[in-house]
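Whether sequence alone determines local backbone shape is best considered at the level of individual chains. Part of our work consisted of pairing the sequence of a single chain with a tokenised description of its backbone. This step matters because it turns folding into a mapping between discrete strings. For completeness, the protein is quoted in full, as a sequence line and a line of structure tokens:

_____
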Amino acid sequence: MGSSAAHRGEVALVTGANKGIGKEIARRLAREGMTVYLGARDQERGRAAEAELLAQGLDARFVRLDVTDQAQVEAAAERIGADADRLDVLVNNAGIVVEWGVPTTGIGAAQMREAFEVNVFGNVAVTQACLPLLERSPNGRVVNLSSPLGSLTLLTDPENPISTRGLLPYSSSKAALNAVTVVYANALRAAGVRVNAANPGLVATDLNADSPFSRGTRGPEEGADVPVWLALTGPDGPTGGFYGSMAGSPTESVPW
């Protein structure tokens, strides 16, 4: 499978891993020789993704994980701790868009709460539960899937199409996630845990199925490039950054 000695035996958790970018990230990390836990809300889809990767000779293990369910979050972390006693990579991939087709002036607090519950609070819940395991790794990495739609620089540029999207819950939740990324990076630097945000690009997944703009111009394989690059960085790798150009270049920074 072409696994590298550098990552063989490492342990990873990917949320939202039963389909799309998440499943491709899990596949790529498992090909590096990692044991990868596939976090998924739906047991049937999660088991199907596990079976698919197992059939390819990969060490994939489904774990039921709704990031908005604190009991499931804690149970997932406890299982990984019991199995491996550490976590080398956490990829917070789970995310939602709630407002396709709804004008900004039609968005209410309920839609904002729904988006933040998954995109921000769920991210923090999983990260917090996994921190003791990440701190036991000699090279702990956290990768948060973000978006240029959360970039205040691009949102305030009238010449940039990002500023015309009007996705209030999604954009604001990803902007909050960017702040979460930087604050965690600062707090965990001394512990040797690195935290970065990744822009996968505009990928044709279920997340964009109802988009009035574009369903996506890239496949999940391409969308996985940036988060996988960050997940595979060594102890001297970056922390507190936002990476991945719209063209998919991993090392190019996205403005905050």
